[in-house]
């Protein structure tokens, strides 16, 4: 009989008993996974980071103006999944330059990533008031309801694409629920483009994305006492332009058994059986407007890079 399970253990138990088996990409981001993702963002194939940085450089002043409360009051800038904050620093500098005063509250599940970010911000932007939050998204969203005063919430990168349709709608509704009329969201959406470019961004030539995916098994070995042999697993990804989804998998390259001590259970994997680990959806601008409306949000404005690869969309609660 299994006693009280950790959140991760319960998720793995549920995911490995499904058909087909699946694990959530939210568990990619332990400290090692966060470091690997920083490397991914610098890869030549991984265009989203460069595209969004270009948006912030070209439109920083306009984005800052769209996020600030209209009456000049102090406010909180809350960023979900802050990572190393490289892109956000472009916006933070603009907000510091133009006022009014604000508090930056980066949220990240990785304590290591947060420690590095806070240290870098204290060094590079000493005037910035930082209130770090080491939590998962669900906890941070609950806390948003009690956040005093005006707020702007950032969800950058292409993270919104990691949710399936139902999960995405639920997540956006959770974001919309605590918003006052003057509050704003800024969400990054990766847009449709050449399917070959999209696929390459998730299967790079250096194998960093593969290491990122496989690191999930390393985490399960460490935290749950599993005995995944990484030599017999590989990363696979594909892109379907019909539904706009990149899907990533871990593939068992032989018939094998894996013991997970925390679950007191052994799992049998067939040769070439896959475990689904991540979706990354791509969008069109009309889709984004429709998705926002379903969640109780409206598009205030949006900004794209010159090539039209990516959009940062400013959203607000629907007017009653």
TrEMBL record:
Its EC number is 2.1.1.44. InterPro entries: EgtD, EgtD_Methyltrsf_superfamily, MeTrfase_dom, MeTrfase_EgtD-like, SAM-dependent_MTases_sf. Keywords: Methyltransferase, Transferase. SUPFAM superfamilies: S-adenosyl-L-methionine-dependent methyltransferases (SSF53335). GO terms for molecular function: L-histidine N(alpha)-methyltransferase activity. Residues 9-315 form the Histidine-specific methyltransferase SAM-dependent domain. It holds the Pfam family Methyltransf_33. Gene3D superfamilies: Vaccinia Virus protein VP39. The keyword Glycosyltransferase does not apply. GO terms for biological process: methylation. PANTHER family: ERGOTHIONEINE BIOSYNTHESIS PROTEIN 1. NCBIfam families: egtD_ergothio. This is L-histidine N(Alpha)-methyltransferase. It comes from Hymenobacter montanus.
